Amino acid sequence: MSWHHTLSFILSGFNETMNFTVPLFSVTLLYYCVILFFNISLVLLIVLDESLHEPMYIFLSSLCINALYGTTGFYPKFLSDLLSSSHRISYEGCLLQAFIAYSFSFCDLSILTVMAFDRYMAICRPLHYHSFMTKRRLSQLVCFSWLTPFCLFSINVLLTARLKLCGINIQRALCLNWLIFKLACPEADTFPNNISAYVILVICYFHWLFIIWTYIYIIKTCVRSREDRVMFMQTCVAHLTSVIINFTVMAVDWMYLRFGSRDLPQSLQNFITLEFLIIPPVMNPLMYGFKLSKIRNRILSLIYLKGK
């Protein structure tokens, strides 16, 4: 039997949360506030301080804005679902949430790729860096890092929207494209969806290869000079940590969605699916806030002024 597109989906990932709704709601609300506070603070700090109007910090503010975009597509709905007895989401709402979740995750990767390129230019091509990184080039790179995911996942979600579905049970606490895709009727034409998924995967691989390539050159250059090593420790360690976190989270999530066991407890299944909305949005601003001396000093001077 096929379901009409006017129907809503049931998010069955909430079934096990019933017993501890209030503590889970409190912790999640607090955590969402922490995400908002960290990311908004960092964006404001970079926007208001002219000494931070450099490519690296502008990319960092882009990363924080992306975190705000991605988490706002999930946490408010999740929090209202925790307090509600019916965990339904409209067909359009589900597609929108899937689009936000995937475009946020991919946008993180494309911003980190552009940041890797920026570090490569700054460390391996210092003489050309300022003539190359003009305001125009900077805005082109920022646009690239945002538009690529948006275009890719618009196509992806549109392909999912044309599928005839034979179920309304989403097995998690949020909508993901793959979970909607799994509800397609046996006779539905899923070939374009598979092609689109593989294209996205290949583009992901190219991003990763590019980041690895830039780091091979950065490390080669840093081995030669002490000055570059200091620069590496100051600016690349935070970026490299973000890259490793992003890669681990995406890999675990993708592997689990495709090949994961259904026998795991529901709460653990939910955590694995949601970790890309839990770990990077807090870790990125924290890492950069502590590691980039300019930002750290600015935060400390603000605290010091407040304390006076």
Automatic annotation (TrEMBL):
State any single GO MF term: olfactory receptor activity
What stretches pass through the bilayer?
20-48, 55-75, 95-117, 138-159, 195-218, 230-251, 271-290
Q: How does it sit in the membrane?
A: Multi-pass membrane protein
This protein's UniProt keywords: Cell membrane, Disulfide bond, G-protein coupled receptor, Glycoprotein, Membrane, Olfaction, Receptor, Sensory transduction, Transducer, Transmembrane, Transmembrane helix
Question: Where is this protein found?
Answer: Cell membrane
UniProt cross-references to PROSITE patterns, sorted A to Z: G_PROTEIN_RECEP_F1_1, G_PROTEIN_RECEP_F1_2
Residue span, G-protein coupled receptors family 1 profile domain: 38-288
Its Gene Ontology cellular component terms are: plasma membrane
InterPro entries (UniProt xref)? GPCR1_Superfamily_Member (IPR052921), GPCR_Rhodpsn (IPR000276), GPCR_Rhodpsn_7TM (IPR017452), Olfact_rcpt (IPR000725)
By its UniProt entry, which SUPFAM superfamilies does this protein fall under?
Family A G protein-coupled receptor-like (SSF81321)
Q: Does the keyword Disulfide bond apply?
A: yes
Gene3D superfamilies listed in its UniProt record = Rhodopsin 7-helix transmembrane proteins
What superkingdom does the record give?
Eukaryota
Q: What is this protein called?
A: G-protein coupled receptors family 1 profile domain-containing protein
